[in-house]
Amino acid sequence: MTIPSTALQPGVWSSAAMIAAIVLASTAGEVLTAAAMKSIGDLDEIRAHSGLKGAIRAVITCPLFFAGVSFLALAFFSLLFALNHLNLSLVAPASASLTLVTNAVAGKIFLKENVDRRRWTAAVLVCIGVYLLAH
Amino acid sequence: MAQPKLSPWQYMILALVSICAPLGDTCLSRGMTRLPPISLNHPGTLIAAVFTPWIAVGIALLIGFFASYLTALSWADLTYVLPATAFGNVIVALLSRFWLHETISWQRWAGIVLITVGVGFVAQGPALTERPVPAVEQEQAS
Question: CB contact, 8 Å: B122 with chain A?
Fold first, then answer.
């Protein structure tokens, strides 16, 4: 493993901290958005009863949704900040693939989703696959 | 209540999530690289950029992505939607190979195989965690 030069490039720990910030903000955003959508209910059914306006109203009047979008925005700005210091070829695949695994953990803990062996395998395979594809 | 197995319409929503996000990003990237460098001293040019065809199409696709993503999350688990929609990366890689004739390294082919196998794994299982129905809802139903 090569250690980046400390003169121009950030150290290993600060690089890890920048990527961790993106992953954490992104995971929080995804989990809050998923929780918001579950609390609203099936959007297809809402649209069938109240039309497109009713579905949009149901989403934009949910406080959890705005909390989720705020964290997703924070993840976006953390990504921009990291791109200012690190290479895209490191930040994009690392954050995209790690987010899949942290979402599986957060989905199990916070959303009480049934993350069985099949979903763990899928999350890990897709995580490695996204890293290889984007690297 | 949503059923654990998805309907064809719901599979179409998942396909839209997969396709709209990478295509939208590609349109934005194509539109922005065609523009002259934008300076922060002239923010108006950034607003004008929104109305150029590639960027407008990119924004429309990303709005479509977010709407279909929210719809998918309303009837499927987050741990089902995220791996299933990662298949969009495979579609973009295959499009770049067979449409744009770009070369794909063996690492990327390995990535394509892993994502495809992973999506196959998750798609075989139920889309939504089954939860016990609250007593009040059970009474209302009967």
Answer: yes
Query: How confident is the model over A70-120, as pLDDT tens digits?
Result: 999 999 888 888 887 887 778 878 888 889 889 989 999 999 998 888 889
Residues of A in contact with B129 (CB under 8 A): 112-114
What is the ipTM for the molecules in this complex? 0.81
Residue B47 burial (CB count, 10 A)? 8
CA distance A21 to chain B (A): 20
Q: Is residue B1 part of a domain?
A: no
Burial bucket for residue A100 (CB in 10 Å: 0-12, 13-18, 19+): buried
**Domain for residue B117, yes or no?**
yes
pTM of the model: 0.81
Long-range contacts of A86-95 (CB under 8 A, 24+ apart): A86/A9, A86/A10, A86/A15, A86/A18, A86/A19, A89/A134, A89/A135, A90/A15, A90/A19, A91/A18, A91/A19, A91/A22, A92/A134, A93/A130, A93/A131, A93/A133, A93/A134, A93/A135, A94/A19, A94/A131, A95/A19, A95/A22, A95/A23, A95/A26
Whether B3 maps to a domain, the answer reads no
**Domain tally for chain B?**
1
- The rounded distance, in Å, linking the Cα atoms of B8 and B34 is 38
Q: How confident is the model at residue B61 (pLDDT cuts 50, 70, 90)?
A: very high
A71 contact residues in B (CB cutoff 8 A): none
Is residue B106 within 8 angstroms of chain A, CB to CB?
no
